[in-house]
Structure formats: C-alpha cells, structure tokens
Design goal:
The chain is an alpha+beta fold. The chain is 40% helix and 26% strand. It has helices at residues 3-11, 22-29, 84-98, 126-137, 161-166, 170-181, 194-208, 215-227, 271-285, 307-315, 333-363; strands at residues 34-41, 47-60, 65-72, 77-78, 103-106, 111-114, 123-124, 141-142, 151-156, 185-188, 231-238, 241-251, 254-262, 290-292, 319-323, 327-330. The strands form two sheets. It has a nine-stranded mixed beta sheet with strand order 7-6-15-9-14-13-12-11-10, sandwiched between helices. A hairpin with an 8-residue loop joins strand 6 and strand 7 (123-124). Helix 2 packs antiparallel against helix 8 (215-227), helix 6 (170-181) packs across helix 9 and helix 7 crosses helix 11. The longest helix is centred in the last third of the chain and has 31 residues, at 333-363. The protein starts with a helix and ends with a helix.
C-alpha cells in the first residue's frame, strides 16, 4: 500500500486523524519507531477499520533489557457500532502477542460526552460509555499513561464567518478587533521561518513550564507536513517583528491547532486572538468542517493547570469534547506492571534534562 492509498482510506472515516496519516508514520519512523499499516475488510471487500501502528524498543532499568511497546495513535479508525470492532480489538491483542510486545496502547476518539458536568451544555453519550465498558471487558484497561489529551475542543466550521464570530465570547471578539486596530498582521510563514518559529516555541515552553522535544523533531514534523500540503504555519507580527505563531494542520475534513508559540513582546495587542481567527478562516478555505483545538483540562475546575487554556478556547466558540483517553492491552502482565511503575521516574529525569537543554538553546 502506498501513501495515497492509505491516506484515502483514513480520510473516509467520520473522524480522520492526522496521527493516522502516512506522513505521521514517516516522521515517527525517523525518530525511533517502526511503522505498520493494517486494514480490516468486510465480506464485500470494503475497508471498515484501519490502524497505523507504531513499535519501539526501549531499555527499562529494572528489567535490564530492551522491551517492545506498541502504540496506535488516535486509532484504530472504525465505526464502533460495527460488529467488526470485536475482531479488530482481538486482532490488535494478538498482534501485540505475536510481536513480543509488553503492551499495546490505543487512544481512539471515542467521544463519551460533550460539555462537562455541572453545565447546561453537558451531553453524555450513554452508548459510547457502554462501549467503553465493552472494551474493558474484552481485556483492555484504561491507561495510567496518557500520550494525547483525553479532552479537547471542537469548533464547528460549517456556519458562516459572521456566525462563527457571533458564537465567540464578547471579550474574544473584542480582542480580535483590538489586535486588528493595533496593527497586528498575520501572514502565512514558509520553510525559511521555521528556525525562528522553533526559537519562539522553545521560549514559550520555558516560560509556561512544559517540555518540548529537540529541535530536529519539530523541524521534521513541520517540513514533512508542509511539503505534503497538510500544514500551514501562521505568524503574527507587529511592525515586521514576530510576536506569536501557530501551526495549522489540515487533512480531509478537519484541521488541528497542535503547536502554538508566543513571545512576551506586545502581548497587550492580543496577537493570539487574531492568529486563531485567521486559522479558523483558513480552515474553512481548506474545506474543513471541524477545527480541533487540541487539548482541554482533564478536570474542569479552576485548580487544573489548563484552566486558562480552557477559558481561551471556550472564548473562541470551542465546544468541549470528552473521551476516556488511552487503553492498554498488557500482553505480558508482569512486565507491564513493572514498566508502569518505572516509566514515571524515567520521564521525570528526561524532563529535567530536557528543560536544561532548552535553557541552553535559548542562551546561545
């Protein structure tokens, strides 16, 4: 199967994911993962499920040797009401056993609720919640180690631009107009801007306290998807000086805001609001009907570290979408327990090292 064939398959599903595209597999294959593509067909030969599968080996100190883990990012893709789901889940379990993996992780976009508890917009989906129970009964368990955000925001792009603005909070509309009045300009960036965009991203990470990967990884992701026509970087500038940016990914009927970056310079001009408005308009131009703002709090309370992010994205007209996140199937239960106990410590050390590296990068 080639790139075009695979992406056509992925695009046919109701919730096609960027992380299931051929390009995502290409990137991960250059950063320590091996890639496999699987499809499931019905009796008529129609593809009813698909999964991009990643495999990686890493050394676990207590075990003292390499172990293999498998990951299906934002997949598998399928209609969860289709009885074929039973076969798909069983096949993934057997695949993990055949590969000699300790476990396989999957995190499908199985939406269990829209909105959140205690609000008038809360709409739980009893059918999806029951489906989660069925998945757990089939041998999978909710994962302690999430890779992607469990919850996110979706903006329905089908309304007109005027209606999309009307759906925003009044303060958000005001900040968009303020940025325009103050002279903030947003332009589509190019390959030549990527070094500067990464420097801004590293500055953002250090200021806001989150850890990012080495520069080479982002350069690879951004170039790969830009070359494929599936990503557009946007830059906000004041008098020709970049003060903020975001990467807009677009594939099939969806767009995603995955990477955002900003400087402390001219924050009073609200450049991030205008950036998002331009991203929304560009998404519509690309033919997308859903804009995924990529990330919402796990706990919808002011104590959550992402509460400020929540208020910003809510202001844009985003609607909360909740999933249960990742599921694990432990092919080797004993080793799986060891890995789950050790991984948090390994990640803590890795984050500490990476934080110092980012500081060094910005001081050079």
């Amino acid at each position: 199967m080639n790139k075009q064939e695979w992406n056509q398959i992925v695009a046919r599903f109701p919730q096609p994911s960027l992380l299931q595209t051929w390009e995502w597999g290409e990137v991960k294959s250059r950063h320590g993962w091996t890639v496999d593509h699987k499809i499931w067909q019905n009796e008529a030969g129609e593809v009813v499920a698909a999964a991009l599968l990643l495999a990686r080996e890493q050394v676990i100190p207590i075990i003292g040797k390499k172990v293999k883990i498998l990951y299906c990012p934002k997949g598998p893709l399928l209609d969860w009401d289709n009885p074929m789901r039973v076969q798909v889940l069983q096949d993934l379990q057997q695949y993990a056993i055949d590969q000699g993996a300790i476990y396989i992780k999957m995190d499908p976009d199985l939406v269990v609720a829209k909105g959140f508890e205690g609000t008038s917009s809360f709409m739980p989906d009893p059918h999806a919640i029951n489906m989660v129970r069925r998945i757990e009964k089939s041998g999978w368990m909710l994962s302690y180690q999430q890779i992607q955000f469990k919850n996110t925001f979706w903006i329905d792009l089908k309304p007109s631009e005027a209606d999309l603005l009307a759906n925003m909070k009044q303060k958000t509309r005001y900040n968009i107009r303020l940025a325009e009045r103050k002279g903030v300009q947003v332009r589509q960036a190019g390959i030549d801007d990527l070094e500067m965009i990464y420097a801004m991203y590293a500055e953002t990470a250090l200021r806001d306290g989150f850890i990012i990967r080495p520069k080479g990884y982002y350069m690879d992701v951004w170039r790969t998807f830009m070359d494929a026509g599936m990503a557009t970087p946007l830059l906000a500038e004041v008098e020709g000086q970049a003060v903020g940016g975001l990467f807009l990914f677009h594939f099939s009927s969806r767009s995603w805001y995955i990477y955002g970056m900003s400087r402390d310079l001219h924050r009073e001009m609200m450049p991030n609001y205008l950036l998002q408005w331009e991203a929304i308009k560009l998404s519509k131009q690309k033919g997308c009907d859903t804009y995924d703002l990529w990330g919402a709090p796990d706990d919808f309370s002011e104590a959550d570290r992402m509460w400020g992010v929540y208020k910003f994205k809510e202001g844009l007209g985003g609607k909360v979408v909740q999933t249960k996140g990742a599921f694990d199937y432990p092919a080797s239960r004993f080793k799986y327990k060891i890995v789950q106990n050790v991984l948090p410590r390994i990640l803590a050390v890795t984050r500490s090292i990476r934080r110092k590296q980012i500081q060094n990068e910005l001081s050079e």
